[in-house]
């Protein structure tokens, strides 16, 4: 156990640039397993790469229509070895992990005990990480990465104990996006307390964060729910779930097509939630939102300068929120939605099967 002073936000683990960055912005972290007194060490079982990061890696390593999974695996290993964390240098994002608590520092305030199986609720882009198995059980063809190694949680990190009544893979999928439904609920409730039941459009409504956002909007008192998806297969899946009042097929990167699709389904939206993992959705989402409305960006592919300048260029008076992944009670709320909403759970289990 190290005895030198530690920072609860992890500055002591920053190697480059030393003493000048928080862990997320740092180029390299110290991932060694020896703890400072307020830290927790996790024995890693599974990494879950965030969607934008995995998409970028997969597209980079696809040649003539064929994905080179070995190339993806080798690049992830190189990123972790070089940076001491899993932070895609292109997207800046990481993901999260599940594992078992291996050691708890005597000054830790996270409430964890040795042997707890947990999901980290902080990004891999700021989590010190060492891999010891060469990711030998991963073929590079999915976001879920079986892994062995160690990860470090700081004094001010957050983690949640895995529920016993859900499979670890299902719980990981839920906790990976649990910030989205909690923030959607908060925003929709802010309309409801003013006596307005808002129209909510969710871009990527059949996905993980999208389906949970639709369920949270309904739970919070939304008046009309519009699910936007890119393909017929996703439209059929979302329509069958009943999570949205209207399901439309539109390219979320096309301003006119998206705005017309949302308007035809009962829009423009009072609240637009962006849950797609491709760039270029900023101005379309703004154009599909009513004056005085709210746009929530949950995608790590979002270009925030494009969003700000796009709203200005469209003379659009909208409030734009960055979904930062943390809202108090977010993990418990997302798990409650999965347990209490068979439609959402079915969508998650269908994705897990495939």
Description of the molecule:
By secondary structure, the chain is of the alpha/beta class. The protein has 2 domains: 11-162, no CATH class; 179-353, Rossmann fold. Helices cover 34% and strands 23% of the residues. It contains 11 helices and 16 strands. The protein has helices at residues 51-60, 69-83, 168-176, 179-192, 208-219, 232-241, 255-264, 282-287, 304-313, 330-340, 342-353; strands spanning 14-16, 28-29, 40-49, 62-63, 66-67, 95-104, 117-120, 129-131, 144-153, 159-161, 199-203, 224-229, 246-249, 269-274, 289-297, 319-322. The protein has a 6-stranded antiparallel beta sheet, with helices on both faces. The chain has a 6-stranded parallel beta sheet with strand order 13-12-11-14-15-16, sandwiched between helices. Helix 5 links the parallel strand 11 (199-203) and strand 12. Helix 4 packs parallel to helix 5 (208-219). The protein is globular.
Q: How much helicity do the residues have?
A: 25-40%
The overall strand count is 16
Mean pLDDT across all amino acids: 94
Tell me the domain tally: 2
Separation of the first and last Cα atoms: 43 Å
- The DSSP helix count reads 11
Rough outline: globular
Question: Would you list the SSEs in sequence order as H and E?
Answer: EEEHEEHEEEEEHHEHEHEHEHEHEHH
C-alpha-based Rg, rounded: 20 Å
- Name of the CATH superfamily of the largest domain: NAD(P)-binding Rossmann-like Domain
Structural class by sheet pairing and helices:
alpha/beta
State the CATH topology of the largest domain: Rossmann fold
> Which sheet architecture does the biggest sheet show?
6 strands, antiparallel
Give unreliable regions as ranges: none
Strand content: 15-25%
Assembly state (oligomeric): single chain
Strand order within the widest beta sheet: 8-9-3-6-7-10
Quickly name the level 1 CATH class of the largest domain. Answer: Alpha Beta
CATH arch. level architecture of the largest domain: 3-Layer(aba) Sandwich
